[in-house]
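Lab meeting, action items carried over

1. Structure of the two-component assembly. Owner: GW. Status: complete.
Input record:
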Amino acid sequence: MKVLIADDDRFSRSGMRKMLESCEYKVLEAGDGAEALRIFIAEKPDIVVTDWMMPKIDGVELVRKIRAFDETRYCYVVMVTAKNRKEDMLKSMDAGVDDFLSKPFHREELRVRLRAGERILSLHQALGERITELEEARKNIKTLQGFLPICAYCKKVRSDGDYWQKIEEYMSEASEDLVLSHSICPECYEKHVKKMEEKYYSNARAGMQKEQMPEPSG
Amino acid sequence: MESSHSGKPRLNLEQLREMGMGDAEFIRELADMMVDDSRTRLENMKQAHQQQDWQALGKEAHSLKGAALNVGAEVLAEMCAEAEKTARYDGNPVSLEAIQAIAAELEFTASELNRVISEMQE
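Predicted assembly:
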C-alpha cells in the first residue's frame, strides 16, 4: 500500500518514513503542497498523510484538489498538524480530511489510524466492485413494462405496431440478448406428449410383430 | 530537568526515542535536522519582526513549535505557541525580547540534544 507524506518539515518526513517503512508501507515524500499534488497525480497513493501548513499549497487546499481530482478512486487522507482549534478541524474535515493526528505523533497511533484507513479503503473497493457488477448486470437486462394485450385463445400478443405475434417472437424482439428455446414442461408432457408417445410406440410394436409373423403356407 | 516556564521539562526525549525507534544514529540525524531547520526558521522570524510582518512571523513560530514538539522541547514549543498566538491569531506585534528568549531556548535545546544523544551513542 502506497502512502504519500506531505510535510515541509524534513524531520517529520524522515521520522514518519522510518515508522511507515517498518509497517511495510511503500513511502513517497513531498516537501510542499504543489509537489504533493504532482506526486499524487503521478503515483496515485492509497493514503496521504499531510501537514496543514506547507509552502505553495497548504494541506487543506491539497485535500480539496485531491478530492476534486478523481471521485472514482478513494484516497484516505490523514491530516497531521499542531493545530488543535475546533474551527481548524471543521475546516479541514469540510475539505475532505478523513482523520487527524496531532503533532508530535506517536508511532502506534499512526499505525492504528492507517490500519483504520486501510479498512475504509477495502470497503470502498468492495463497494466499487459491487457497483460495477450491478451496472454490468443492468446492461444485460432489458425490462418489459406496461400493458400488453394477449389473445385469450391463441396467446398471441399485440405489439406496439398493432401487430399480433407469438409471445416468444415478441419477447425475443423486445430483449436483445434473450433467446427462447422451445421445450415442454412436465405437466404438458404428461397431458399431451406422453399419450402420443405411447400410441407411437404401441403402433411401432404392432408393426414389428406383423412383420415377424410367418407367411401362411399354401 | 525543569524550567521555570510552567514547570515543564525542558527536554523530554521520549518523543525523539519514539520517532527514532531506538536507532541512536537515526536519532542523531533527526536531532541535527531539527536544530538546522529551527535555526533557519528563527532567522525568518527575526526577519519578519524587522518587517513587522506578523502573519509571516506567526507561521514561522508555528513551524518552530512543531519542530520543538518533535524532540520533546516542551518549553521551546510553549514559547513558540505564545508567539504564534500573539502574531497570528491576535494580530499583535511580538517583542524582540520574546524572539531572543526563543533563540536562547533553542540553543539550550541544541546543546542538550547533543549531550544526551552522545551518551546514547556511547
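2. GW to write a short summary for the group page. Key points so far: The mean pLDDT of chain B is 88. Residues 24-50 of chain B form the longest helix (27 residues).
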